[in-house]
Every structure is written in C-alpha cells, then in structure tokens.
Design brief:
Elements: H1 2-114, H2 119-140, H3 144-161, H4 167-181, H5 188-200, H6 227-236, H7 257-277, H8 280-297, H9 303-315, H10 329-340
Helix pairs in contact: 2-3, 2-10, 3-4, 4-10, 5-7, 5-9, 7-8, 8-9
Amino acid sequence: MENQDEAQDIENAAATKQLQPKGRALAGFTALLALGALAGVGYLYYLLVYLGPMDEMQRRVSGLESGLLRSSNALADLKREQRRGIEVAVAAQRQRLQELEQALAGALSEAAASAPPSPQQWKLAEVEYLLRIANHRLLMERDVDAAVGLLSAADDILRELDDFALHPVRAALADELLSLRSVRGNDVQGIYLRLEAVKERLIALPLELPGYFGTPPPVQEPAPEGLWETLSAELASYLQVRRFDGARKPLLAPEEAVYLELNLRLMLERAQLAALRRQQVVFEASLGTAREWLLEYVDQGEPVVTQAVSEIDGLLEVQLDEPLPDISASLSALVASHQDTP
C-alpha cells in the first residue's frame, strides 16, 4: 500500500513538474493582457482628459478668429463710410466757400461800379463813343467827312490825356485818318437834297410846243379873186400841215403833262433811294431815264429846263460804290487798353 502511495506521489510530482512551465506562461500572458488593458484605459483617459478640451479650445479659437475677422471688416466699412462722409462734407464746404467768394466778388464789383468814375474814365468813355459813332457813320451812311471829324475829335481828347498806354490807339487813329482823307467822299445827304431840288422844279417845266405855235411871220395877203379864194386864204392862216417822218417822237398833249411830271418824279425818287443804298447801276439808270424824258418832252429853251438837265449831268458823274477803309482798329485798341487796366 505504501508503495502504491509513493508511486502515486512520484507520478503527481512528475505531473506537477510538467505543468509548472505552462502555468508560468499563462501567468505571463495574463500579465501582458492586463498591461494592454491598462494601456488602453490610459489612452482612453488621455483622449478624454487632454484631447477633448483641446478640440473645444481650437473650436473656440476658430470662433474668436472668425469674430475678429468680422469685426475687422465692419471696422474697415465704418472707416470707409467715415471717409466718404468727410469727403462729402469737405466738398460741401468748398462749394460754400466758392459761393461766398463769388458773392464777395460781385459785391466788390457793384461797389466799384457804383463809385463815381474819374475824369480820365469820363474822357475815355467819350473817346469810345466817338469811335463807335465814326464807324457807324462810315459803314451805314458812308459819310467820310463825318467820320474824319469824329476821329479827329477823339484824337484831340487822347492828346489831352497824354497817356503813353494809349499810344497804340493814337497810332491806329493816325493810320485811319490818313486812309479816310485819301478817299473822295460822297455827300449822300447833299446828293439827296440836289435831287429833291430838281423834283421841286418839275411843276414849272414847260412842255415843248410845236414850232408853228409861235408868232407867225407876216404874210402878204393877195387880193382875193373870189369868195372861195377868200375862204381858203382865211383857213390857211389857221392851219399848217407838216409831214411826220418818224425820226422824232410826237409831242405830248397838254393834258398828258401831269403824267410826265409823275414819271419824272418817280425816276428822281428812285435815284434818291439808290443813292441811299449805294446802288450805282440803279442810280445811273434812273437819272438817265429822267434826262432822256426832259430832252424829248420839255422845252429846251427855258432856263429852268437847262438847269435841271445840267444838275442831272453833274449827278451822273458821282461814284457811289467807292471802297471805304476799315477804321475799327482804333476802337479795338481802346477796348483792349480797358481790359488790360486793372
């Protein structure tokens, strides 16, 4: 029995020796599992404790950065609005300043204009008036003599002022006076009045009468031989027969004299109008027609007719369309001197 127990103990010891390395291996594996679990728990703890708040912090930082960017943009927009408002206010102030300056300049101009002019300004204004009237008389009426007189009067005033700044004006006046004095001026008013005098004498112009209306020469009356011869001689003393060859127009009847006067008056008035308008062709044609009618239908032996024809002949020599010089240089120089004066 004891041998059996010893054998059994020996077998158990041998089995125990065989199972001892396997237990150690299992214990090591169990320890490794415990360490792995512990590492996993630690990693989870790290994720929960450290990494979770960091993500939240990053989200907060990102939110703060976004808010800061929006604030920066709003601040930039506000600055732009302020800048635009300042620019508008500055432009309004400049416009207001310009308006005030213009109002001040206008007030100063009105004050200067309301001040009484100096004697020199009066004289310069008189010179300008004379020059303008001279240009008008020459251009509109072609009155050379009047233009010369006006320019001479203006030059006399400038000579009294004795201002060297007006030297260009006097130089232009000298040239213009020389040009005008070289022109053979036509007195249009005189021409008009001469034609008017001829018209007043039309009523007294006698018609041309036949030659046999004069005093007949004495005729020696033969002794009548009978009644018929006596009647024939008596009738021949009242009648005279002449042949008309057509070389001369027939004379006007006494009742047609009024039409001759009206036509002559019309031609002379037409010549007057042409003289005022400087129409040389119409002037000469009207006077030529009037002269022709006077020579054909009016008695040439009367002095009044001779004077009318002579006056028309003199008017036919007048040249109305003679070119005139330009006398505006002196006026332009005077106006320029006014503008240069402060």
